[in-house]
């Protein structure tokens, strides 16, 4: 049985994968909330798109955990888009929302920085120890 400890070696890979996975799960949660709001067909459509997009982001995290070289693009690109979105939302939000969005922004920046570090690139270029 494989253990998840290989994901956190090097730590930068673990940060990138965890950040992407949290983003994906969060987006799926927003999609489910949109569908549950049941404001007509529009909220169902938006919810379905958000769930699909969240699954794509989570797929990037899964690829990263499997050390697939294609994972870096699927981790970095959505995180950069999310940084722009959160920064935009922070400009029009009230103080409590800005604090919450600031925490999300820190997670996203950490995800991007960790994903582009040389140690992460090297980890994604080779299989984890014990894999053949």
TrEMBL record:
Domain of life: Bacteria
UniProt KW keywords: Membrane, Transmembrane, Transmembrane helix
Taxonomic source organism: Tessaracoccus antarcticus
Name the UniProt record assigns to this protein: Integral membrane protein
Membrane-traversing stretches: 12-36, 42-63, 70-92, 98-117
């Amino acid at each position: 049985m494989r253990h998840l400890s290989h994901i956190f070696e090097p730590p930068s890979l673990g940060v990138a994968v965890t950040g992407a996975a949290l983003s994906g799960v969060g987006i799926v949660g927003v999609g489910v909330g949109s569908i549950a709001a049941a404001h007509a067909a529009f909220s169902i459509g938006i919810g379905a798109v958000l769930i699909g997009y969240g699954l794509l982001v989570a797929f990037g995290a899964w690829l990263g955990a499997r050390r697939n070289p294609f994972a870096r693009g699927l981790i970095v690109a959505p995180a950069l888009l999310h940084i722009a979105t959160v920064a935009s939302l922070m400009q029009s939000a009230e103080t409590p929302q800005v604090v919450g969005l600031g925490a999300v922004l820190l997670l996203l920046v950490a995800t991007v920085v960790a994903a582009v570090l040389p140690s992460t690139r090297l980890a994604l270029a080779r299989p984890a120890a014990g894999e053949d």
